[in-house]
């Protein structure tokens, strides 16, 4: 038996940067737990982080991981396994030829906020230093570039001035455009603790949806999508009117206030309330709480950033902080929460097309010269590089011939998927460097380079509060996979030889050598880390920047002295003017579609989607609508609808949600064609939520408008339904899901997700205008093992109904329902509960929707940690009479004692509180 080992790392999901302790047996990860010494989480983990070990299961990894290089030499051929030498020779030849014929800007790199800082640094140097192109951008462009631009325009540098500890010192927390309870759960636990410790703490939430975060707020501002600038300007107007600004601070430490003051004069409470769709009283309350507070802290994320006016939204909020002196002191500041684990590290090394190492600007000749000297190259190109959406437009147009995609999935995550897929098909060479071979983008790869991933990598990451964590690999590289930096360095050295360079500018033998060079580029900059080393990070733990040479600690919060990294040393007010959304609703497209995160999934789900239990809370793709809109359109829960924008259409089940205002729709950002698709228009196929979203760009940050699109919602008349679900051997479950993906495109609508906990199952759902060909149905059923003598069969060819059930050892193993699928609700629970079915007899095959006597559905899982369902919480509330009489906090405590829900990671606590409140209101109304 292998010896048990432990290694410290960080969680590879959001930007909170939680420390984890990875437990291995030397060959595989056997468990994870939160690192009690890590200052980001002090041992806590959310539902996603606490199941990280399940994503590293070797049985699943064997199906999902890219483990050896693959290459196809003919565009219409299949990729075949190849050696690293053969692949590298091919890539160098193609790059050299293409650059010689068309120039360095004919190639591009699209990389990721999930790379480590050292990986990022090498790719940046490869593109800008060796090849001579600024065509390198990152998926952080999709989430953080407006925050970068907002900080730079106002404070002078891309440096979040606050820290997590400020949550403990704040008197007002203003959450804008962030469902923190879902997107950054461990930070939200800290907010919950702060409220317990300070009963006077006020929480304001501005969001178009009544999310779990909004429900918990002392004041909820349900603003219309895209109206954030008007809201912030309106709050500043009130603060000016009521003398809540700090005139002395403005005069001593800022500039440009006079022009902004003239602008916000027009943002009267009535105008802003009408524009934002909120009440004047709530607007006044928000402004007074924020301005009069001793310490106001803003937390914001994609609701501000993913917008064609994202930079203005960020700047308008920072304006409010500067004017009221809510910055540079404990508990105060504008705090942008990063979405990816190392988006901050990528920004530090200049991973965006318009940046250079250590927060230098590509447009600044002195900065380019500094970096050229540091890298030992003649020059860094001055021509602006293509940003994410622009890059794929240039690929489609033929201006960029070769694209190298590393650790990201643009065929799921970029807006306007029609454009993206046309670009990938048109490119002369697509290289995908990836840990997972199951992503949609891998289908377009001419060359697949297998990379290491979490638990195998070594290097550093920086979280949202500027805290750098160093970690070592817990496991060896699987198969022929290599570290991202190793792949980039080897390619760079070979390309240098092809370019006849006399000496290499990539002399690295270890990842530490890369980090040391990155550290030197920060000397004298705002993020100076010349006082740090790998040894210090290992001995003293994670550290915040700046940490210059001679320092003994990093700095918790910035600008406490009122001096800013601008030419004048003063912060700058930006004259922010409210602009309506890039794509307003109209008679043809009357719904405002927003996108966002689900509680238990992350990004494109290439990792989290391998864990069956993470589907329990939101089991399948859907579009959420208000009950009012559902009733107006005669749509029932679960009915399929066409959601159509000016760019594409996706069929989805509709669900009624009390989160939603009338005229709004919401879809989880995670659902790509790996999980939901169909034939689409003109046989082109549909590809998830980003078939709908808009590529409109913010003029400053070039961040796309992923948060708002105008859509229409029409009921889908698809009378024939087909559903297959069953237990699948762990060694086959992900392979089956991948194999079903082409089949999904043969139906008008299809989805394929996982379910289960101790066992794993696959659920395939489809709908169409007419019954599918019997051969297709049979093929799908056989993939689930529904074949042979153990299958119970009922067929009604005249009505197009069929029920085929595989029984093993007296229990359901797999079920196929065609035509009438209404028995799903109880058959699936019988299968998941592994209940004996012998006593059911003919009921299993009767064409009745009636469930067996005594059957009660568990319903949706609320607490994933302890597998607690909504019905079980309801039962306890009903039995104890708490729903009508109990104090909410006391009820929650009693529920936790009885069911344990919310006692582990705490991610379900806001939802449990919502249930208590709603049941209480219902009980009192009934009484």
From TrEMBL:
PROSITE patterns: 4FE4S_MOW_BIS_MGD. Its cofactor is Mo-bis(molybdopterin guanine dinucleotide); [4Fe-4S] cluster. InterPro entries: Asp_de-COase-like_dom_sf, BFD-like_2Fe2S-bd_dom, BFD-like_2Fe2S-bd_dom_sf, CT_Nitrate-R-NapA-like, MoPterin_dinucl-bd_dom, Mopterin_OxRdtase, Mopterin_OxRdtase_4Fe-4S_dom, Prok_molybdopt-oxidoreductase. The keyword Transcription does not apply. GO terms for biological process: cellular respiration; nitrate assimilation. Keywords: 4Fe-4S, Iron, Iron-sulfur, Metal-binding, Molybdenum, Nitrate assimilation, Oxidoreductase. Pfam families: Fer2_BFD, Molybdop_Fe4S4, Molybdopterin, Molydop_binding. This is Nitrate reductase. It comes from Noviherbaspirillum cavernae.
